[in-house]
Amino acid sequence: MGKSNILFLTVDCLRYDRCGFNGYTRPTTPTLTELARSSLVFDTAVATGPYTPESVPGFHAGLHGYNSAYYSDVDWTAIPNDAETLASHFRNTGWETIATISNPQLTTERNFDTGSTAFETSAPRTSRPKSAIRRVGGIAPRAGEFCA
């Protein structure tokens, strides 16, 4: 049997207490609830920073905001150039790593592409972003159902 696929899905500013897989009774997240039935859901995660570029390095590179967000010649950088990331760990063990980002703060200039064999960002916040899940396509069954 070949390798399984791993889909690491994060949603910025998601109200966890309004998700069906967390017991919320209104049908706010039917597709996520269905996906959660056969997934590993981390429901005790704690953000490592107060805003996205400081918080994402926590789960992406195991870094706290105080040792990851720093000012460089580019701008505020969130992940140091030599940091090992979740993507680089998987890539170094033979996995293909694809990052599809719709948050305009998570840029290559801030090293959020570190470890990804493919890195793609969507349109700026001023227009409706493309669905990250749709572009990943074959990674998750019925991936298109996540699209708005």
TrEMBL record:
GO terms for molecular function: hydrolase activity. The keyword tRNA processing does not apply. The keyword rRNA-binding does not apply. Keywords: Hydrolase. It comes from the Archaea. Pfam families: Sulfatase. Residues 4-114 form the Sulfatase N-terminal domain. SUPFAM superfamilies: Alkaline phosphatase-like. This is Sulfatase-like hydrolase/transferase.
